[in-house]
């Protein structure tokens, strides 16, 4: 009962905040805080969002731009997961590997993803490789760090038991470390996905000829504020969907781990 009431309170507060936000938006427009061309009405942005689904802007519809962005995101984020999670688990298991990789990793992970833009443009031009590199730079550190922390937090008794049973290093990582580190790994994936998605938009502003970032910068150049805001809303909505999918993956993995 308490949980249900808490959920009701959550949706009530969410609705209140949403209504307050749009009320302030309409009020700001009514009081002429900004010229209409720079602050369109909410319903005008919604109309433009729907219009972009059918009518091309900057050479493609909104859905085509979004699919281009998701393709780049999938490649960059997928590469970050495929490299970061196994490497983090292995670093948590083998002290020598940890000592070798950590100094280099610590010297690179504090470089902002957008700082890689000049190299991405020089190495890959406006193709898919440049944005993929920038997304990887944003998503890789959280994936590795959380997998590493999850592996380090595993009860040493499980590792000793695996060693006594003669389980090899690979199986120890896949059958002991990985299941125990799932919550930490998923937390890293959520952070990495968020940073990767943000890095993608920044990359597309500079080194891409399509995608949501390109749509926004082209709209800004044309002073099409409603298109800019429609693109921002679409980016935010897709980001929420990505986070929800990762949380569902977490529930699935935890369910099978505890089965």
Helix-strand layout with pairing:
Layout: H1 2-30, H2 42-52, H3 62-93, H4 95-108, H5 117-124, H6 129-152, H7 156-164, H8 169-207, H9 212-221, H10 225-257
Helix pairs in contact: 2-10, 3-4, 3-6, 3-8, 3-9, 5-6, 6-8, 8-9, 8-10, 9-10
Write up what this structure looks like:
With 259 residues, the protein is an all-alpha fold. It has 2 domains: 1-33; 35-257, MetI-like (MetI-like fold, Orthogonal Bundle). Helix content is 81%, strand content 0%. The chain has helices at 2-30, 42-52, 62-93, 95-108, 117-124, 129-152, 156-164, 169-207, 212-221, 225-257. The model has no long low-confidence stretch (mean pLDDT 84).
Inertia-based shape:
globular
Q: Any idea what the radius of gyration is?
A: 22 Å
**What is the rounded distance between the termini?**
27 Å
Enumerate the spans where pLDDT stays under 50 for 5 or more consecutive residues.
Answer: none
Keywords:
259 residues; mainly alpha
Task: Summarize the entry for a quick read.
This protein is mainly alpha-helical.
